[in-house]
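Record passed on here:
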Amino acid sequence: MGAIFTSDNQAPVDSRIMAAILKANEGKASSYGADEITARLQPLFAKTFETDLRVFPVTTGTAANALALAMLTPPWGTIFCHHESHIATDECGAPEFHTSGAKLHLLAGDHGRLTPEILSRCLRDNPPGDQHQTQPAVISLSQVTEAGTVYRAEEIAALSAVARQHKLYVHMDGARFANAVVSLNSSAADLSWRAGVDVLSFGATKNGALAAEAVVFFNPALSENFLFRRKRAGHLVSKMRFLSAQLEAYLENGLWLELAANANAQATRLADGLHAISAVEILHPVQANEIFAHIPPALIGPLRDQGFGFHVWGRDEEGIIRLVTAFDTKPGEVDAFLAAVRALA
């Protein structure tokens, strides 16, 4: 059986996070977030991000993104995002639904990233005040992007400056935020609120958790009434301690960064090996744990037959595949895939 690089969602739960869930299962605890574990999240996140904040656990990244955006835009608002962003391509209209109709305005950008120039030009062409148009409200950035690239702190700050100039909020989809922090050898604070991010959808599920994400408000005033929005949307978990236990174990002692570091390292190992195969072309800079590559289409079937898992981007005959490494990916799995590609190519 070959190695699976289809998605980091297919990885198991890290043993330390599973142990935390089992420990939380001992005895009874108050429900709906009134338990001791959930209470400990507030200071833990504040310490991790080096600032006062409000944090709310939810079960999915889609919920985190959609509910966060719903706090930042009216129904007649515009959310500016990259055309490949997860909120635009993979959430079944959840942002539009939970914002009660806000419009996603899709923008281009090389390697999955927006630039201040792209955003400024768009905002110049879409000024506020026209009653016939949705009104500019939010920009949403993906960290890591859908192309597997990352935004440096100064790039986020430059985009945030444009947003501030036009009185827009800044949201960040941080489903793979840990991978970006490790990739840039940066701090959680530098890649979020210090660079101008107002609200972060903080992900843990792709990096070793069972089902745990969080909406993090760096301006606590923006979180007013989020409790009611979360409940109304059906995302208030009665046994909240099991979500909170995952997030607590994830952040304690730097586990989140340790797990992301292995995923990133194995992606680099995989990319370096693919670079050495003349028949393979890497399509985007490999900066976290995702690789997009063009391979001879004839290799796709045989690689699948050998049990290797990967996602075909588009149609098989186009030969574009996405490979995602995870916290538990082993060097031997990477080497086995590289050997198979070399032999077939």
Summary: Residues 256-344 form a domain with the Aspartate Aminotransferase, domain 1 fold (CATH 3.90.1150.10). The mean pLDDT is 97. The two ends are 20 Å apart (CA to CA). The first strand starts at residue 54 and ends at 58.
